Amino acid sequence: MTQTITVIRGDGIGPEIMDATLHVLDAMQLGLSYEFADAGLAALEKHGELLPASTMDSIRKHRIALKSPLTTPVGEGFSSINVELRKRFDLYANVRPAKSFPNTKSRFPSGVDLITVRENTEGAYIGEGQSVSEDGETAVLTQKITRKGSERIVRYAFELARKTGRKKVTVVHKANILKSTSGLFLKTAREVAQLYPDIQCNEMIVDNTCMQLVMKPEQFDIIVTTNLFGDIISDLCAGLVGGLGLAPGANIGTEAAIFEAVHGSAPDIAGKGIANPCALLLGAAQMLDHLALPEQAERLRAAIIGTLEAKDSLTPDLGGEGNTMSFAKAIATRL
């Protein structure tokens, strides 16, 4: 296989975890090649803008990108570079797996294996129609949900269940109160669910979902929900399995897909060589799944698990005395 991917090294600890991730991918000898592009503070310093046209062109050309965390400067540019990328490429599906790994700070060492599928392009999280009254006393935000957006994200969740052999999709909503927006999402989800009689579908109100995730996460398989609810739930799920250092994410559309570590750029530890690269490595595994290389994706995940089990060169956050690259080299050795 030969495939060129756009690589965005990111800000803060981004370059360190990207170098570690590419070291592991190179060890797999998959025939991948890289076109490096800039975004975030690195792009602002080099090109004078947060998201240069050359970076957009690269993603458009190769249709696959692997991205480290980015920093959006306060008070200028986009409200979020990640949101801007999702908008421009219509990356409507945000896919966040949460799985228990050995020798981590997971509260459920063997009981969590679920995926949150979050609508990525509409809803309250997008921040459309924001305004504050002249007296500063009233703020307004428009929340828009469409049948099209709801249908395609729910279809994606059910198709993902079929593809991965999962048996249940939980539709998370707040239709009891938000009868128009969340109500439309739930109504559309019910219609889509009827097309997948082989997949169990249940419905759950978002606040109850959060409680159930904390009490009994093993009851969930795939969760599908709207943008803001999905943002909150996916981070909650990361907390169940040891934190954002083990949380990858995929942003998938029909014309492009971007795979990432969902944690921040952590400028306080940048340059120290102690950042945990697991989230980006797991994002790379999602990328391999997307490239129709599921066996290689599982090979990568198995090497990560084996390294965690052996406590081999783990970074300090995982209780080890290794560094970012020594951890990556230990994983590469198992490949």
UniProtKB/TrEMBL annotation:
PANTHER family: DECARBOXYLATING DEHYDROGENASES-ISOCITRATE, ISOPROPYLMALATE, TARTRATE, ISOCITRATE DEHYDROGENASE [NAD] SUBUNIT ALPHA, MITOCHONDRIAL
PROSITE patterns: IDH_IMDH
A GO molecular-function descriptor: magnesium ion binding
Keyword Oxidoreductase part of the UniProt annotation: yes
Native source species: Thermomonas carbonis
Xref: InterPro entries: IsoCit/isopropylmalate_DH_CS (IPR019818), IsoPropMal-DH-like_dom (IPR024084)
The protein's Enzyme Commission number: 1.1.1.41
Keyword annotations: Oxidoreductase
Protein family according to the UniProt entry: Belongs to the isocitrate and isopropylmalate dehydrogenases family.
Domain Isopropylmalate dehydrogenase-like, chain residue ranges per copy: 4-331
Pfam family, one: Iso_dh
SUPFAM superfamilies per record: Isocitrate/Isopropylmalate dehydrogenase-like
Gene Ontology terms describing biological process: isocitrate metabolic process; tricarboxylic acid cycle
Protein name as catalogued: Isocitrate dehydrogenase
Classification lineage: Bacteria, Pseudomonadati, Pseudomonadota, Gammaproteobacteria, Lysobacterales
Top-level class of the enzyme under EC nomenclature: oxidoreductase
